[in-house]
Design brief:
The chain crosses the membrane at residues 21-43, 69-88, 108-130, 154-171. It is a multi-pass membrane protein. Keywords: Membrane, Transmembrane, Transmembrane helix. The protein has one domain. Helix content is 66%, strand content 6%. It has helices at residues 2-46, 71-95, 104-130, 152-181, 185-190, and strands spanning 58-61, 68-70, 100-101, 196-197. Strands 1-2 form a two-stranded antiparallel sheet. Strands 3-4 form a two-stranded antiparallel sheet. A hairpin with a 6-residue loop joins strand 1 (58-61) and strand 2. Helix 1 crosses helix 2, helix 1 crosses helix 4 and helix 2 runs antiparallel to helix 3. It is elongated, with a radius of gyration of 20 Å.
């Protein structure tokens, strides 16, 4: 028991950060998923082709390649930006809070960069789940788009989000918030405008 107590005391901060990150992540999944559905309903009103074949139509052919970007990729990217901003604000103020906070933009752009990297990996997962030639493609006999619960792109998006959560947690913990907030005395003296007391 003493061993477990020692380990808990050593990693208590990280454990609670992981818990809070999980709560924020769960809310972020909800925001991302709702935004994904909303964008998928809204864009076809502006661009009718976005609604063809449940969003699997080609949006843009990548020049000089046989690859393309499909509408569900667009839906995923737009919902990512909404959820990324939501997650950043909540993680900044709650999960990785400290007595020092760097300038908002100074913290957000690394957070966005991390998110974009994870989203890039996620888009590969999303494509693999949606592409019928993929060995891990979601079966169309089950996910036949007959109802919202059986909509293939919804499940693919949800699986993609869950798979990328560990990436964002680890990098944000050890880089985005920690590295930027570890400001030495020289930097504080040279750039006092970058230091804000928490809650201001």
């Amino acid at each position: 028991m003493e061993w477990f107590k020692t380990k808990y005391e050593r990693y208590e901060t990280s454990i609670w950060q992981l818990f809070r990150f999980g709560v924020v992540g769960g809310l972020g999944v909800f925001v991302n998923f709702v935004a994904f559905i909303f964008v998928g309903k809204l864009l076809p009103l502006v661009w009718p082709s976005a609604g063809y074949l449940a969003g699997t139509e080609v949006w843009w052919n990548i020049p000089f390649t046989e690859f393309n970007v499909r509408w569900y990729h667009v839906f995923s990217m737009l919902s990512f930006f909404v959820a990324n901003l939501f997650n950043f604000q909540l993680n900044r103020r709650w999960t990785f809070k400290s007595h020092h906070s760097a300038n908002w933009f100074r913290e957000y752009f690394p957070f966005l960069t991390v998110g974009l990297i994870a989203q890039g990996v996620g888009l590969l997962i999303l494509t693999a789940l949606m592409h019928q030639g993929s060995p891990v493609a979601l079966p169309t006999d089950i996910f036949d788009d007959s109802t919202g619960f059986r909509t293939r792109k919804y499940w693919a998006q949800l699986i993609m989000i869950v798979c990328t959560i560990p990436i964002t947690f680890l990098v944000n913990k050890f880089w985005t918030f920690k590295a930027i907030r570890t400001l030495d005395e020289t930097e504080e003296a040279e750039h006092p405008e970058d230091i804000q007391q928490e809650g201001t």
